[in-house]
UniProtKB/TrEMBL annotation, chain A:
Domain Aldehyde oxidase/xanthine dehydrogenase a/b hammerhead: 36-145
Disordered: annotated span: 1-22
Species classification: Archaea, Methanobacteriati, Methanobacteriota, Stenosarchaea group, Halobacteria
Keyword Lipoprotein belongs to the record: no
SUPFAM superfamilies: CO dehydrogenase molybdoprotein N-domain-like (SSF54665), Molybdenum cofactor-binding domain (SSF56003)
Keywords: Molybdenum, Oxidoreductase
Record's keyword annotation contains Oxidoreductase: yes
GO molecular function: oxidoreductase activity
Protein name: Xanthine dehydrogenase family protein molybdopterin-binding subunit
Automatic annotation (TrEMBL), chain B:
Any Pfam family: Fer2_2
An example Gene Ontology molecular-function term: 2 iron, 2 sulfur cluster binding
This protein's name: (2Fe-2S)-binding protein
Gene3D superfamilies tied to this protein: 3.10.20.30, [2Fe-2S]-binding domain
The keyword Hydrolase belongs to this UniProt entry's keyword annotation: no
Length: 816, 183
């Protein structure tokens, strides 16, 4: 396999003789405006008369706030407004939290719980002045001991929230099958402890808000780059104390990346909106990078796993016991269910019937977690694969062979895992075999990176090479009903029936414009995934038009129905289903309109390639002519595509019991070739081979782009990225990009990618979700490849990121 | 908002500067502390200059200053006085994308697009110095810019493609229809 050739792309206006656009690499509509600098991101939105906001933030991890002296700022002629907690409590509500019983105000209420927590806001004519004013606010603190370590937090006398009485905000233990029996019967029980560092998406564009208040309607218009604006708008309108239809959240067509992280920027939306209401003028806030890294509510999972695997002498995996602590920081924000999503791929690609899954969700004096690509699955896959490696070595079986023996086989698919989710389609052993072939042909040969002679020679020079393959599953297309599991009591869950399940569909609208082109409306937001292009190419096929005949726009939170939106590897599947539905609606509507116009039966007309024809005649009407005839908006249609799992009774059990349902299982077999310099501890990935299957590829160019990006983020999490904290003071140690290291061109190897295609039986087009791939599968793959490289020295990558410092520490320990 | 509308506190210093931006002279009264990136965005309305970190790591604000590639968040506007700034807005001509922009589009070298202006400007500088770079040279040349979406794979390809386009352009000029040697 050589580096894949550049895509044979098509422009949106190209004719494809006799072929459909679905499955083609149609180049993106979004690009031109971005490339020329014309795209309007939230940072570019500045209405006339707009003021700017700056935030006074806590300098301590844990401290009582004795006094907030705002007098110097308020007396200054450049200061337009100062808001403190008292102002908020007078007029507004606390923010909805991810768990019941936590009252979180948009500003610290009497106690600061993390460095960077907002204490006051100031507004001035521009950001420079606003920061001057922020400097004039004087906060008096009484410092408290911080809770910094997630494991210690469980037993600590120091409480982040005294009212809660504990730092363990949520815990659940779920047993599937008979794990006790499996562990008692098995020949071996292998244990391991694995740590996943605090990382996050760190999109290049920080959060931004422009809030405007309309006194006449007592309503808000808030432009912002929040993710899932139609789902999480409650975190804004409830806080502002207004009904949903008076708080309009509008997300620009272009958002500079999110990866899940911008789901939780509601604090900024709320503060800017409050300031706008108080002042009667637009207020803008742009988070700066230090605010973002230090206290932007945007870190993600930080987990310690203690895992056990029960297996027999012959290498059969019998039982799995998963226990972990996840350090959520100071507040349990919405993505608390990140601790549950791993249930959707509980046993990864292995057939294991008896499993126990338990977690402690703990609170500490750190910035709160938000979602990040993978939503808690990436650490699970990492820990599980580490355990599999450890077990293979303990059993003295080749790690690849050990995996192969336990893989779910093609004839078992669709395969129900113990937690009720179902893997749809694929060939896992075949993928392992193909990757073996690829490595044999390209690298385990003379002159290859894994040429045994070269590996031996490099080892003598102190550079240890290795690679390890595994089949890693990416759960795709989350349903929504399970996401409030932690706010639902056990009895309710026990007593639910299938009728109680409430799933959110995907909404899509389309209308014919006077010139005969089609305008479609998305009810979701986008941050680089190419949704406009995707919908245009899908609808082009449905309507027999060119993608360039279709324009795609966005609905705000009031116009759009409440729905899920862009997250959880959902959009390709949901939008393709919705496009098929809306295309059908529009064809029918146009045919009926034409039939009525001609005064004939519906059966006497047919829609074809952008026209309605009257059979047996030469009469036909174009879209433009039909639009002109349409005086009742009959050419405006909308469609709600039901979540695919709801149509298959196989999922009923998981849906009913609020276990995470992800009906598609894309998967990857990776072979990153790593080299560890044992003298410095530095790990280099020399090349990254990946074989991927996401069923039907709707736009291969976009699919590959998603995988490339996910792999890069996975490499960062495996080797470089970490929000460290000083264990004594709770001070964050990565508050600039000099400390929080993102992979650059210097760190990213060439990626060699190949695809297979096992279409999903559960989705309209056979597509599977791919948005979180790479991030889900690269860290585990890199860690296990390090295990392979360092196997002669008995060192494993049991703590990520496996930085040079950590590698050296482990190597020193191994030498002693 | 323009600086004229800004209410000034007593004694805040300002200075008048003239900067040539994408070929046009811009004269403004600015505070010495105004960053060049903010000057370009807010005073010149060039929003293709993106601000990602404001401490010189991410490269989203990369522009050309008198032919040097610089991160405009690390300079003050007053430092650009009497100099020529070129931003991504200056590349397309008469609605026609520059070959580098075309190549980025054709190779899907952008997703969210926030880093793209910086990468396009860095690529322009790289190819001016080295019209036919090897993969390692591309990696070296773009190491000052961060992308969080693409994993860089398609950016490498876009640079290759842009290099081909530009060398074709030069070749076309050199062997122009009238056979005259071009520059």
């Amino acid at each position: 396999m050589s580096e894949s050739e550049p895509q044979t792309g098509h422009e949106a206006g190209d004719e494809l003789e006799g072929r459909s656009f679905t499955g083609q690499s149609v180049r993106r509509f979004e690009d031109r405006r971005i490339l020329t600098g014309e795209a309007e991101y939230i940072h570019d939105v500045t209405p006339p008369g707009c003021l700017e906001m700056a935030i006074v933030r806590s300098v301590h991890a844990h401290a009582n706030i004795v006094d907030v002296d705002t007098s110097a700022a308020e007396d200054h002629p450049d200061c337009e407004l100062v808001l403190t907690i008292e102002d908020l409590q007078e007029s507004y509500n606390p923010q909805p939290c991810g768990l019941e019983g936590y009252e979180e105000w948009s500003l610290a209420d009497g106690k600061a719980r993390f460095v960077g927590e907002p204490i006051a806001v100031v507004v001035a004519a521009d950001r420079y002045l606003a920061e001057d004013m922020a400097d004039l606010v004087n906060v008096e603190y009484e410092t408290l001991d911080p809770v910094v370590d997630g494991m210690d937090a469980r037993e600590s006398d120091t409480l982040v929230h005294e009212d809660a009485g504990t730092n363990v905000a949520d815990n659940e233990r779920i047993a599937f099958g008979d794990p006790d029996g499996a562990f008692a019967d098995a020949d071996h029980v292998v244990e391991g402890t694995y740590e996943w560092g605090r990382v996050s998406g760190v999109p290049l564009e920080t959060a931004g808000v422009v809030a405007q208040y309309d006194e006449d309607g007592d309503s808000f218009h808030i432009d912002c780059n929040i993710q899932l604006h139609t789902l999480v708008d409650d975190t804004v309108y409830e806080t502002l104390g207004r009904p949903a239809d008076r708080v309009e959240l509008n997300v620009p067509a272009d958002v500079g990346g999110s990866f899940g992280t911008k789901i939780a920027i509601h604090r900024y939306c709320n503060l800017a909106a409050m300031a706008a209401e108080q002042l009667g003028r637009p207020v803008k806030f742009v988070e700066d990078r230090i605010e973002n890294l230090q206290g932007g509510d945007m870190h993600c999972s930080e987990r310690t796993y203690e895992m056990r695997l029960a297996c027999d002498d012959d290498g059969t995996m019998r039982g799995l016991d998963v226990w972990f602590v996840d350090d959520f920081g100071a507040w349990p924000h919405y993505p608390v269910n990140q601790v549950l999503k791993p249930l959707s791929v509980l046993t990864n690609s292995y057939a294991i019937d008896d499993v126990v899954y338990e977690y402690d969700l703990v609170l500490t004096n750190k910035t709160a977690q938000t979602a990040y690509r993978g939503f808690g699955v990436d650490p699970h896959q990492y820990a599980l694969e580490m355990l599999v490696d450890d077990a293979a070595r303990e059993l003295d079986i080749d790690p690849t062979e050990f995996r192969r023996r336990n893989l779910v086989t093609p004839d078992q698919l669709p395969y129900r895992i113990p937690s009720g989710n179902i893997y749809d389609s694929g060939d896992y052993p075949g993928a392992m075999d193909r990757m073996d072939e690829i490595l044999d042909e390209n690298e385990r040969c003379e002159g290859g990176l894994l040429d045994p002679e070269t590996v031996e020679q490099r080892r003598e020079e102190g550079f240890y090479r290795g690679t390890q393959t595994a089949v890693l599953i990416e759960p795709g297309v989350s349903g929504s009903d399970w996401t409030d599991r932690q706010r639902t009591d056990d009895e309710t869950i026990q007593n639910r029936s299938r009728e109680d399940v409430a799933e959110l569909p995907e909404h899509l609208r389309a209308e014919v414009k006077p010139d005969g082109t089609v305008l479609a409306w998305l009810a979701t937001d986008s941050s680089g995934q190419g949704h406009q292009t995707l919908v245009a190419q899908l609808l082009a096929d449905e309507l027999g038009l060119l993608p360039s005949d279709i324009e795609v726009d966005y609905l705000d939170s009031v116009e759009a129905p409440t729905e899920y939106g862009s997250a959880a590897s959902r959009m390709a599947v949901m939008l393709s289903g919705a496009s098929v539905g809306v295309g059908r609606q529009l064809r029918d509507a146009l045919a009926e309109l034409a039939a009525d116009h001609w005064g004939v039966d519906r059966e006497a007309v047919s829609y074809r390639d952008g026209r309605v024809e009257r059979s047996g005649t030469d009469d036909s009407l174009s879209l433009a002519e039909l639009a002109e005839l349409d005086d009742e908006a009959r050419t405006h249609v909308s469609y709600d595509y039901e979540h695919p799992a709801t149509g298959f009774p196989e999922f009923d059990d998981a849906l009913t019991h609020k276990y995470p349902v992800y009906p598609t299982a894309a998967y990857a077999v990776n072979a990153p070739i790593v080299e560890v310099d044992v003298e410095t501890g530095e790990v280099e990935v020399l090349k990254f081979y990946t074989l991927r299957d996401c069923g039907t590829m709707l736009n291969p160019m976009i699919v590959e782009g998603q995988a490339h990006g996910g792999i890069a983020q996975g490499l960062g999490a495996a080797l470089m990225e970490e929000f460290g904290y000083d264990q004594g003071s709770g001070q964050p140690q990565a508050i600039t990009m000099f400390d929080y290291l993102l992979p650059s061109t210097k760190n990213m190897p060439d990626i060699e990618m190949e695809h297979t295609s096992h279409p999903s039986p559960f989705t309209e087009t056979g597509a599977k979700g791919v948005g979180e791939g790479g991030m889900i599968d690269a860290p585990a793959a890199i860690a296990c490849s390090i295990n392979d490289a360092l196997e002669p020295l008995g060192v494993t990558a049991d703590k990520l990121p496996f930085t040079a410092h950590r590698a050296r520490k482990r190597l020193r320990e191994a030498e002693e | 908002m323009s600086i004229e509308d800004t209410p000034h506190a007593e004694g805040r210093p300002t200075r008048e500067i003239s900067v040539t931006v994408n070929g046009e002279e811009v004269t403004r009264e600015v505070e010495p502390r105004l960053k060049l990136s903010d000057f370009l965005r807010n005073e010149c309305d060039l929003r293709g200059v993106r601000v990602g970190c404001e401490h010189g790591v991410c490269g989203a604000c990369t522009v050309s200053l008198d032919g040097d590639t610089v991160k405009s968040c690390l300079l003050y506007a007053v430092q650009a006085e009497d100099l020529a700034v070129e931003t991504v807005e200056g590349l397309a001509e008469d609605g026609q994308l520059h070959p580098i922009q075309e190549a980025f589009h054709e190779e899907h070298a952008l997703q969210c697009g926030f880093c793209t202006s910086g990468f396009v400007m860095a690529t322009k500088s790289l190819l001016e110095e080295n019209p036919d770079p090897e993969r390692d040279e591309i990696k070296e040349g773009l190491a000052d810019n961060i992308c969080r979406c693409t994993g860089y794979q398609n950016i490498y390809r876009a640079v290759d493609r842009a290099a081909d386009k530009l060398s074709d352009d030069i070749e076309a000029v050199r062997t122009g229809a009238d056979g005259e040697e071009g520059a």
